[in-house]
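Sequence, structure tokens reproduced for absentees:
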Amino acid sequence: MKPTLVILAAGMASRYGGMKQIESFGPGGETIMDYSIYDAIRAGFGKVVFIIRKDFADNFKAIFEPRLQGRIEIDYVYQELQAFMGVHEVPADRTKPWGTAHAVLCAKDAVREPFAVINADDFYGRDAFEKAHGFLTQACDEKTYSIIGYSLVKTLSDNGTVNRGVCEVDGSGNLTGIAERLNIHTNNSDIVCDDAQEPRTLSVDAQVSMNFWCFHPSYFPYAETLFSDFLAARREEPKSEFFIPIVADRFIRDGGGIIQVIPTESSWFGVTYKEDAPEVKRSVTELVDTGVYPPSLWS
């Protein structure tokens, strides 16, 4: 059974100031998502599930369906505030989505096989998808999930500080936790974190989460239970969010199983700030010029 790729594309993109999920970065008008899907197809994934908002569904489908039809199975899921609320009601002042773990939960009826989860606006690289495919087809089960780990030094921005989830890894290469570190930047040859936590200087070899996860379908009933707990405790907080690392942390602490940290040789790049866009385009152009990708992905 071929694994599925779930793409989180419902974000508001508030810091960037626009719908960066459908902005063109490639020479043929490709979005960052196009490169992820292309890498997933050649790695052996059989289906892509887009998690989007209903209010831009028509425009989104008009872009991607002509490109992907006949190349990979496609499905769409809408992240809506009322989904999986159970006995709870959406607070009257709630406008913010419930977070990435809730977004993935919304794909429950669309995914029946081991699956990977990625952000729409991050470039992950071919090696990452090959590693994910290998894990999902050979090692993934109810007690074994994974996360693709990126070298921290390869995920920084020249245009401002970044926040990163630094992976805490045991001697067997399994995740023990993710430390959310804020305001990370370079200072001469050091990587410095200005968030009043220790250590202030981070290792260049640190593995960080860029939200590339690999799960078994057992994720869904487990996350649904945790979301109910989350709503009971934090529903009335206007900015509370149910993130994937919350589910991962509980999975580990509750003895549900292990989460392997799989390092990738790929370089990550993404559009955190508008000023990042030209550099992303240059990076994509370089990959095309060196033959990693064709000039037009879908022609």
The domain at 4-142+208-244+267-289 is CATH 3.90.550.10 (Spore Coat Polysaccharide Biosynthesis Protein SpsA; Chain A). The first strand starts at residue 4 and ends at 8.
